[in-house]
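lol ok so funny story. i was supposed to be doing the assay writeup but got distracted and ended up predicting the structure for this chain instead. priorities right. anyway since i did it might as well share w the group, maybe its usefull for someone
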Amino acid sequence: MKPVMLKEIFINVSAGSTRIAISENKELVELYYELPDHQRMVGNIYKGKIQNILPGMQAAFVDIGYESNAFLPFSEIGNTEFMSNLTFDDEEEQSKPSKNGKIKGIDPAKDFKIGDEILVQVIKEPYGEKGPRVTTGISIPGSLMVLVPNGNYIGISRKISDKYEKRRLRNIAKEMKPNGAGLILRTIAESKDTKILGHDFNQVMENYRTLNHRVKNRKAPVVVYEDFETVDQVIRDLFTSNITKMQIDDKLLFKRLYSYVKTVSPDQLKCISYFKGKGSIFDSYNIETQIEKSLKQKVWLKSGAHLVIEQTEAMLVIDINSGRFIGKKDHEQNSMAINLEAAKEIARQLRLRDTGGLIVIDFIDLVQPDNRKKVYEEFRKYLRKDRAKVSVAEFSNFGLLEMTRQRVRASLMDTISEECSSCSGIGRIASKDTVITSIENWVKRFKKKANDKRLVIHLHPLLSNYIKENRPKLINKMMWNNWLYLEFEENNEIQKDQFRVYSKKRKDFVSENI
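and the output, tada:
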């Protein structure tokens, strides 16, 4: 019998950020950050204007009101790639759109003109100096279903395996589906009754009517539909029947998510709870420690071997070293054991770090072709848990494995750190918002162990100025939440990504003791 996976969601809300951790069998596998100044764009729909058409690049650039024009590849005009995860009946197989991303009769290079208005949806966040990537394949997501205005089909998630349940959902969808539109039933729709499905459909249609009204009455470039915030989007996409626990440490967010779950999945209300413990929720469930260990350049494996993960300008490079591993078998079998262990950890690290682009992995050399094949197949098996699209090539003649991973947003490292010109390590230090989150989590831990009421937080002037200019209410919020009087003092001797805390009661620094 296959063991049941313990899949849990933990949400930590602080003045500096909101963090969502996903764990499987107590092991951290995904981590999402929502920062106050970083507005998520993926899923948003814009009424834009074509600014440039480049037939040589097979792409157009669209002004959507963002600082950089959006990138629209011709392959994304009418793209229906998401349909690979759906099933259709025989009749719909004949009428569903093709998967090659082409609209019959349209040649963008000839038919598009500069200044034309166009409706596009963001599918990839802006990265560096690049603007967001967009598609004309518009979809309006609900909690249980997705409306595809330019489709004309019913799709059911392939993850719903019961044929009778698929038939039931298809019959319900046929009654709901508007003429000329497509309707997709998501995995979470499984076993939901008609009333709950109907409520979600009505909400999706209301969003669609609002979208249409804005398209008709607003001038381009303008946003006409905004998708959920990061927290709501993650819960919408990941809070399925296999989630065993979801715990939140913020009362307002807990109430909002509880109300959401009550509407779309009332049978799972028992899984959601408010964290009442002292200190940080991430400390209580050993998540903070896992984050610190997992995001280092060197990642240790249980066997004593380790990974070295290095991000270069062109690619992510991962090297496997046997390290302290001492096997009792021959070299080939020892190398095989390390590679299999590394394959599992690498798949987890890619999800956790949310790294996109080209990735090259240098596994320990194996002589036997069958052993290489087994490592390759095991690695692909672990990658199936990844929601991002991945493509993996077989081992090269030099024993390297090359792969690509879909980049939807900035990687976790880019989100929580910034470039450093003097760190002599990986070239990055914790971002200002990450340090703010660390300060608040430290205060929570301190409050749990001590009763000091007046603390002075020493930090670098750049961080102090950032707080004053961008987080003016931060200090009051931290004092109110922790029932402490806090003072912030500038100190040029402290590194930009560090802080020290002085207790007026003890007349000494206490940050090193917690």
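Residues 90-95 have pLDDT under 50 and may be disordered. The longest helix spans residues 194-217.
back to the writeup now i swear
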